[in-house]
Each structure stands twice: as structure tokens, then as C-alpha cells.
Amino acid sequence: MPDEPGQAKQTLLRALAEADLVVVSGGISVGDSDVMGALFRDAGPDLLFSKLAIRPGSASGAIVMEGKLLIGLSGNPGACFAGFELLARPAIERMGGGSGKLEWCRARLAESGIKSNANPRFLRGVVRVEDGMLTARPCEENSSSGLISIGEANALLAIPPSAEETRAGTLIDVRLLPGWADRAWQ
């Protein structure tokens, strides 16, 4: 949709008239052309949340509009992917009769070198079973704008805030993606 507030709102209203949930990507930050960001900032009591203390995907939000759920995700592919898995997929599952609960399990980190960060990080990664335990490694490319590693990822790796790099052997939480076993590294 165009970066024009009135047209964007009309497009969203039409979508919400036809769907139970609308997910948008892009335009949710604070720039002049970020019309979704303005919509979220002006939502008042219909705002569920805006801006999360996570990386990537901090530019995410949710509002109730016309009695329906509108989820806004970052326009950066890697951040949008993380936001979808953490926010939109659980909402869709819940609306479809499932629990909507984020399921996590523990895995051993296979390699060192994950940089420190003040916020929790949700890295695209690959998990496999090794010696009877889940072992995880981050995808080589994990920037917010990164696209290629989305195809190889079979999990989100939850890296807690830390002043030091996360080392190999550390136990971390991982969210296995649908079909994860078909994309385990060789």
C-alpha cells in the first residue's frame, strides 16, 4: 500500500472487513514515511504494544482496529521473520483453536562468538540432534536485513542479554520451526 496515511488506513479497513487478522510488514518505525508507525502511535487505548526490547524485530506492534487484530512487523526480512514467529504465528495458531503458546526447548550452542547485547536476541539458526541432545548453531548471516538465512533456518535461537559473548556449550532456549527436522544441518 502507498506511504500515504489516509490510503493506508482505508486499505487496512478493507482488509479487516474481510479477515480476522491482518499482518503488515514495513513502515512501522518512526520515520516520516512510516505510516504504520503513525497509525500505531495514534491507536490510543486500542494499542496492545509497540516497540519491543528485542533484536531483531524491535519495530513490531499490535493494535485492535475495527474489533480485529492488526500486527505490524518490521520491513527488514530477518526482523520480520523473527516477529512473525514470535508474534503472528502464535496469534494465528490461537485463533485457529490451538494454544498459541510459544514452545521452547533447550539446546547446546555448537559454536562461540555470539556478540554481547543489552536486549534478548532471536537469531535464525539450525538445530539437530547430536549425541541424544539438541545442538544449535546460528545461521552465518543474521542481520535484520538478511534474507538468505531464512531459507536454511529451522529454529529461532534465544540469546539472553549479556555483557559477554555467548560461548560454545552454553545451554540456550530454541523455538523449533515447523518441519525443523527436515532442515537440520548435515
Automatic annotation (TrEMBL):
One of its GO terms (molecular function) is metal ion binding. One of its GO terms (cellular component) is cytosol. It catalyses: adenylyl-molybdopterin + molybdate = Mo-molybdopterin + AMP + H(+). It is an enzyme of class 2 (transferase). Its EC number is 2.10.1.1. The keyword Magnesium applies. InterPro entries: MoaB/Mog-like_dom_sf, MoaB/Mog_dom, MoeA-like, MoeA_C_domain_IV, MoeA_C_domain_IV_sf. Keywords: Magnesium, Metal-binding, Molybdenum, Molybdenum cofactor biosynthesis, Transferase. The keyword Coiled coil does not apply. Pathway: Cofactor biosynthesis; molybdopterin biosynthesis. Residues 2-94 form the MoaB/Mog domain. Its cofactor is Mg(2+). GO terms for biological process: Mo-molybdopterin cofactor biosynthetic process. SMART domains: MoCF_biosynth. Catalyzes the insertion of molybdate into adenylated molybdopterin with the concomitant release of AMP. Belongs to the MoeA family. This is Molybdopterin molybdenumtransferase. It comes from Cohnella rhizosphaerae.
